[in-house]
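Re: that chain you flagged

S.,

Sorry for the slow reply, it's been a week of failed gels. I finally had a moment to sit down with the sequence you sent. For the record, here it is as I used it:
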Amino acid sequence: MKKKIIVGITLVIALVVAFVALTMFMEYTRTNSSDKTVTVQIPKGASEKKIAEILKDNGVIDYEITFRFKMKNSPYRGKLNYGKFVLNKNMCLDDLIETLAKPGEFEKGITITIPEGYSAEKIALLCEKKGICTAEEFLKELSEGAFNNDFIKDIPDKDGVKYKLQGYLFPSTYNFSKDADASKVINTLLSEFQTQYNKVKDMLPEGMTMAEAINRAALIEREAKIDSEREMISGVIENRLNIDMILQIDASVVYAISDGLYDVDRVLYKDLEVDSPYNTYKFKGLPAGPICNPGLESIRAAMNPTEHKYLYYHTDTNKNDGNHIFSENFSQHTAK
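Prediction finished late last night. Pasting the structure tokens below so you have them in one place:
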């Protein structure tokens, strides 16, 4: 009985190997003699498995397993591109893979550049300016839309938070089709945040949550004018939090009094008393939520504050080049 089972298993394995070998031979020996072409859209970030599925669905390949096996030993492994490709339905695997490793074409649509430090409110106005949607539609979707990104479950629900997803709309340059809407834009920005955050998540210090890191990063993004000071400002935030000292960060006040638009030239003494959970002059600790959408360098800085004794900083009005002067105590702060 055992002998029959072994023989049966051996036969099955032999048939599978023969099948794979045959399909590989058929795919490898294809020629580009056919004039039948198909336009295939490969999405950004698609895995080789996903690409194989798309090719199979469009009739470019007959067997996904053959394509994936070929990719294992291909010099183009991990280098396939995204975009629109016009493919010959009878092309061999080598030519197919080489084609997919070249930049794809992009549908002419709407290009939008979201600067680092833009708030959701400013992104909404930018989308309106670009003709994607109205600012009202964007902010309504941001508040009421259903988004399924894994990291969202780690964002706490806190009283006073204006937009839960503020801070997670990753700033970058995007190209959207002309039929894109607010939901498409927000989904794309959230997905890009996940991609970028994955690059630095292992830097997250013990005891600091993702939400806290992004909250800090947003403050750093609005306060730092030059890259070299991001981690220094992060260190000041760390020092103040460690001794339960009120943060007193101007950018948090500006967010509160400008309705997130940052169109205020100067902060007055009366503004420091605005009754907002984002006002770090009035309430201890971090703001209720991020005050903008930070870039990757500010997120890195939030996770890696410089160790120093500074508790204060202010703009260097002599240099007037974005630099700050850092001080350990209030006397030094007011004297410089």
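What I noticed first: The longest strand covers residues 37-42.

Talk soon,
D.
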